[in-house]
Specification:
Distance between the termini: 105 Å
Number of helices: 6
Bound molecules: zinc ion
Radius of gyration: 37 Å
Number of domains: 2
Number of strands: 10
Strand content: 15-25%
CATH architecture of the largest domain: 3-Layer(aba) Sandwich
CATH class of the largest domain: Alpha Beta
Largest sheet: 6 strands, mixed
Shape: rod-shaped
CATH superfamily of the largest domain: Peptidoglycan recognition protein-like
CATH topology of the largest domain: Lysozyme-like
Structural class: alpha/beta
Length: about 250
């Protein structure tokens, strides 16, 4: 992940206090701007993000400490969310101006054409989401519902879009969330397979020992042959012992 530090003044941010971060909110903004240009403009903007990802996939880190400071990017949900903005015009202009691909998708029940993010942006967004979720020990659960969600439903997810929080927003479109959801599912399926394989290997080395054979079969009884002179000697001792006992009586 190619990250550039472009910190905004700490006074601009809210203090998270003891609000634990619950989820990431994704946005589009900035039309065709360069990442450093949008990051600079955020200095005077009312709304701003924790991170910006430009069209070439470079990540601009605006928040010097996202675990303590909260950006202002989503209505009533800033204190427990992290905001990532991917630079995009969002909607194509009437006259084609941008060389980027578009997609038709339905959000809030309304069909519209949205500008697609570049593959570099999607890759960087995936890496950044993975980084944040790992850092905060959150599972990557991506919301792919094409509509506004209630607070309870939003809390079931860790990666969401701005439009799922507000009816008057359509960013970042549905396609990005669907792509991230597929990657997250693949990631967990692979992790699951890996851990199952690791368990199998461990199981092979930790097999219970074979049960011991019954003693009589496993250990043959060895009958030693006693030489004749020993037999004679034992008999003599026995006879002498008997004589001695008789004598004592
Ligand atoms: Zn937004």
């Amino acid at each position: 992940m190619n990250t550039v530090k472009a910190y905004l003044p700490a006074e601009k941010f809210y203090q998270r206090k003891d609000n634990t971060i619950r989820r990431i909110v994704l946005h589009w903004n900035g039309a065709e701007r360069r990442g450093d240009d949008l990051a600079r403009r955020m200095q005077t903007h009312k709304a701003f993000y924790d991170y910006i990802i430009d069209r070439s996939g470079v990540v601009y880190q605006l928040n010097p400490d996202y675990t303590k400071l909260a950006a202002k990017h989503v209505r009533s949900n800033n204190l427990w969310t992290v905001g990532i903005c991917l630079i995009s015009p969002g909607f194509p202009p009437k006259k084609p101006k941008y060389p980027w691909s578009h997609i038709e998708e339905t959000v809030h029940g309304r069909l519209a054409v949205h500008t697609l993010f570049t593959p570099e942006q999607v890759d960087a967004c995936w890496e950044l989401c993975q980084y944040i979720c790992t850092d905060l020990s959150l599972e990557m659960d991506v919301a792919i519902e094409p509509r506004k969600l209630s607070a309870d439903v939003l809390d079931e997810y860790t990666i969401t879009g701005h439009f799922q929080h507000q009816l008057n927003r359509r960013d970042p479109g549905l396609n990005l969330l669907q792509e991230l959801d597929q990657r997250a599912q693949k990631h967990y399926a692979e992790k699951h397979l890996e851990s199952a394989a690791a368990q199998n290997v461990a199981g092979a080395t930790l097999l219970p020992p074979k049960p011991a054979a019954p003693l009589g079969l496993a250990v043959p009884v060895i009958t030693k042959r006693v030489p004749w002179y020993i037999k004679l000697l034992r008999a003599a001792i026995d006879w002498l012992l008997k004589l001695h006992l008789k004598a004592v009586k």
